[in-house]
Amino acid sequence: MKSQIFTQLRQAPTHKEHHQVVFWHVFRALSEAEAYADNVVLCDGQYLVGGVDHDSVGSLWWIGVEVDDLTKWGNLGSINKHAA
After folding, report:
1. Domain total of the chain
2. How far apart are alpha carbons 64 and 47 in whole angstroms?
3. How far apart are CA 45 and CA 12, in angstroms?
């Protein structure tokens, strides 16, 4: 499952457009993204998501946590404040 995540061309979330992805992290090396994904612990209603994207520097891989219900998840103001 995790290896398939990183083969999908999928735009990384942004603070303004996240589509129920409440936390994500971006990596320049696929191996770092895979290692990070191996350590994500999920609760009920949370799912591991990610993909490969590109910017002006080159390829990037991202991994995140998507929730099935933002209102049950909690504080919408705390969605990944470090994202651009």
Report:
1. 1
2. 8
3. 21
Does 47 reside within a domain? yes
Is 12:28 a contact under the CB 8 Å cutoff?
Answer: no
Domain membership flag for residue 58: yes
Mean pLDDT by 10 residues, the chain (84 residues): 84 83 92 94 93 95 91 68 50
CA distances from 49 to 56, 57, 81 (A): 23, 23, 18
Question: Can you give the pLDDT at residue 82?
Answer: 52
32 CB-contact burial (10 Å; exposed 0-12 / middle 13-18 / buried 19+): middle
